[in-house]
Amino acid sequence: METLGSNPRIVSLCGKIFLFDHKRGKSNSGKSELISLCLSYDRGSNTFLDDGAAVISRKTSAQVDIVACKCALDLQRRVTTPCVVVCQRGERGDGFLYSLLTLCDSHRLESCFEFKLPYQIKGAASILQGPTLLWSHAGHVFYTSPQAGEVRQIPLQFSHSVFGELPLLRGQVFVLGLQNECDQPSGRTLGYFPQTGEAFDGALILPHPYIGITRCILVLSAEKVDGALKSAVIAVTSHQQLVYFQSGVVKDTCPLPFQQPEDIQLVNCGRNGCLFVISFHRGHVCALWKETLQIATQWSGVSSVHVDDFLGCGTDQILLVFKDESVIGQPLENFLITDLCGISYSHGQDAYGPKQSSPPPENNLLTLQALESRLQSGLTVLQELRGEVRVKDRVVNQAVQALADAVSGREAVLPQPEQEGLVALWDSDDESKDEASDDKMQDMPAVSPEPHVDKLWHRVAEDRIVVGVILTMDSALPVASVSLSILTETGQGSTPAVIQTQSQVSWLPTPCPSPSSSASTPPEPAAKRSKQHNAGTPNDLNTCRMAVTAVTRLIPLLNSGCVKCHVMLHYVQRQDASSSLSSPTPLVVHCGQVSREIRGDFQTPLLKNPKLKTDEVKEDLLSLLTVLDRWVFHIDSPDHSLGDVDGWIRRRVGCERIEVSPQYLLINSSGPSALMLLRWSQITPFQGELSVHSSELQVLQFLDSLLAFLPASCSVRPVHGTRGQGAAQTFSLALEKEVVSLRDSVSLLLHEKEEEEDDKRRRISGHDETPPEPGSVEGLQRCREAWQQDVERSRTRLSPLVDVGRYRKLTRSVLNVQLDGDLAALLEIQRTLLH
């Protein structure tokens, strides 16, 4: 690692660490170097590795200092980039020259703007979106940005001021403050937008008493409703207190363990919730849960705190850089990476307490596959139970109708038992023998043919390799947990090494022709339960095709110039639905070998000509879908129709439709890391779903331009859990909710009916409690009435009559739940079918 000065400035962006510092030259040279260093965390070695360093500038003057350093949104390039403000004294001593530098790539910074001041900025200077630099001097607030082009003064004089920015609103950098007593005797909070020159009521963000004591502020949400600003704000005060505001009204408070707060950051831990991380003076840090505002933990001796996805797992982690005066020039030799939810990586913390143990190897993929398998088997059993309930209801209703016809003297018409998949209770001897032989056959495990491997291919994309297979299998063969693994054959030992991979499964729409039925196939014996789906029937289209892909890094494979790898298919097979409750048997199929010289690029036929319709192009598309990260967004426009979103996407530069799968649009730039695959599904004129396969930075840039095209009232919500089988999970949960709602509603309806009947009987029986004389006419009459009531109660239970209003209420609730299930089924079909 490059040796830096004693106090470098550190920022984080996209999981990387950027350090800025200046080094003094030799005593006789009088030169000063401003250095930029990029680091990335390596989980294997548990250290930060050097990704490159660059000398920003060399000045003959030794008075070059770093004023501020922060990541901010560059409105011209529409990207978030590290920004650093440096100051140097003028050569003639006539002022101070300030420069704001932005990072263009990992090894080059360029000057965004420069300005000169007759004084030196004292206190904290804030870098906000734009990038915009704000500071206070002599009771006034000044700002400058590339859009302003010069240093400007806010036309309001504040005694106290707070700087911040509103999320989701472009260019909304704001200044809150209290005007001087002579100008504003009421002390009302005023706000000002420097980029637009508009003033507003600052009490909608912070009330008047908190302006003077607020040290740092974080705006969680802000939107305009009926012309008024609605906001959710977290403020940290100098009174050791964290305060939560909603539209300027205090909603909750929390005491803090330290004084002199300096910064507050939000940590998104995914499904585990969110945290607030607050930095204090003298190296104190504490973390609070967002939902409860309860302190989770605290640290001391911290040099700097950063929030980013350093592990590349899709959620945020906290990076705590601890002070270590014994190691000079190495600022990241003592750190802790944690999210307080199971992730903890530490290095060099012996002096600050017990060393955090490294977590066990992550098995998230295996856990998700196991949960998905259980969910699929549970859904299958649930659907079968629903079918059994429907058959039972029909048979009971037919039996009741037949009994009523027999009592009334009418001829009862019964359907054939085979129509319901049932047989009579009394069978002939031949049929009993057939059933006995059938039960023996069902007890024996059936040997189903394993999936047939049609083709094996692989692609190399930068530092990753994609391996895929096309399978032909029985559509009625229930399989789960399908994945691929790669085994290396290096020739150095008898035991091959297993390479960790991530697998994806896609069903191909082109089915193979069903084999002709054989005349020697014995007839299916009768069964005493509902007949299950059998792929052996002649009228079934009983074969389908599946594509399974796996991606892994090339580094474990680079043992020699030519690598031979065995590709193994893993899946779980069950014989029938009744065996889903038992433990499934994992099976393995050898798909073949891939031999690859690690040379070449990713310029596949698909990237050269997306209009081709060949199997190789389809393999390229499957490889891209495996390599690229996937995001799914649900777009809702309650006030206006969405418009031609598909046409707007196709008009973008470099966008072409993939002919082999027309629902996908390809935006091709230089290199596989700049590729983008888009898929737009119009659900209704006011709703749609957008699938994006690309890097995180490109997704943010694309969404920013898409929001400018969509109506202002549109909402774009990410669909959670879409990186795996999120649609299948949503569909199964909707079906489960539908069944539970129907069961509870019918049970409640019948229960209320029975309670009414019981109350009625108690009222009738309560009129005359004197028992009649045995053998009298009155006693016989009461016995006859009791018998008739029992008959009527039995008839009511078999065919209950309920109130029309209650039945309509039940129907409406069930229909509302079924609508959610239909929408989930539509999304599942649109996502899984590959046209």
Automatic annotation (TrEMBL):
Chain intervals with Basic and acidic residues compositional bias: 759-770
Record field: compositional bias (Polar residues): 493-507
UniProt-annotated stretches for the region Disordered: 426-449, 493-538, 753-779
Gene Ontology biological-process entries: interstrand cross-link repair; negative regulation of double-strand break repair via homologous recombination; positive regulation of double-strand break repair via homologous recombination; replication-born double-strand break repair via sister chromatid exchange
InterPro entries, A to Z: FANCB
Gene Ontology cellular component annotations, sorted alphabetically: Fanconi anaemia nuclear complex
Protein name per its UniProtKB record: Fanconi anemia group B protein
